[in-house]
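Quick log. Single chain, no ligands specified.
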Amino acid sequence: MTLIKSISGIRGTIGGKPDDGLNPLAIVKFVSAYATFIRQNTTVKTNRIVVGRDARVSGMMVKNIVIGTLNGMGFNVVDIDMATTPTTEIAVTVEHACGGIIITASHNPKQWNALKLLNEKGEFLNDREGKTVLEIAEKEAFEYAVIDDVGKIISDLRYKERHIELILKLRLVDIEAIKTANFRIAIDCVNSVGGIVIPDLLYALGVKEIFKLHCNPHGNFSHNPEPVPENLTEISQLMTDAKADVGFVVDPDVDRLAIVCENGKMFGEEYTLVAIADYILSVTKGNTVSNLSSSRALKDITEKYGGRYSAAAVGEVNVVAKMKETNAVIGGEGNGGVIYPESHYGRDALVGIALFLTHLAKKKMKVTELKASYPQYFISKQKVELTPSTDVDNILLKVKEKFSAYDITDIDGVKIDFPDKWVHLRKSNTEPIIRIYAESHSLSEAEALGKQVIDIIKEIC
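-> predicted structure:
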């Protein structure tokens, strides 16, 4: 069993001994610490916290414990039940809530679950705030409410519709253009909450023909839920069988968007943000942001339109902070995460779908043609498993020394920029691994660069 405590929340496999997996005791302790932090720091007076969950098998069990603990801490809970991560973020602001908890382990397999923690803006806690929650949990520095102050449950299952309504009102979402294009669209929602919201969004956008894969939200994921090419063979085949124009795949909490071309080949999750930024920047001048592990293609597109590109440390909260600092009009992460401030400061696959379809409709291109119009880069994503005794700091230091002749960025792990390629290695916040991303103008070169770094790490270890 595994339990990972980090500034981004608590994540683990279900079950185990008290100090092992994500069990009821661990959930109570961590939620109590979060509630204490919110009580001490919120400026909102509603005394409400929003709770949403993806469709994982353990979701209802975890939700009941989370809500009971928040009630025990004296908070009223707005229970929106099965909802995407971006829907829950939006609900926090609509409810004028003090914060929110999203019960989801994102792309992790079904035995995992997690708590993602939001502030009163519906945004993730930052590094300092997350560390404070961990300290409160470690010290058990919390106190439960007396009987007259125990919180209540407010059930509200209308947020799916509200989220869709807000997307339809976005200035750059052109419903008429999408409707006129008569798109045939395939979707894979990996048996989670995307299955209950993406079809409704597409119908609201005027799409009439939808070919569905794994839209029943029972939580027994039909394949590995991370939306990467090796897990998407079914929709690749469906694209050609159904003669679909475009395919969309999301992760279980619908904050990542992968796109499939009409020929069944992957558009590339790195290019989700690139394509949408191309559309946004063509009509709205401004800057962009992505994390250090994202493609150079976004920088190329941004500079084409006269904007300024900035890189942030990996993590949505870091990207959002840099977007606010640089007044970026679009940003996100190379894993298919799109952040559009005119909607809200959070990765949102639903917003991504609406903007991409508008772009595709206006371009009057096939998806393969659109992809070919962008600078062509290839990213290799590899990893090294860690043991409890692995000295990650020493590994990063040795790698920096090895490549000291090149441009190095160390705000988040180590990124080495070569004239025609780059490699970025960092310790994951959610899994016991070092992630190694490399990019070049060919996949073989990117993979070779990543393997070179892995060999160096193995020598160090």
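The longest strand covers residues 378-385.
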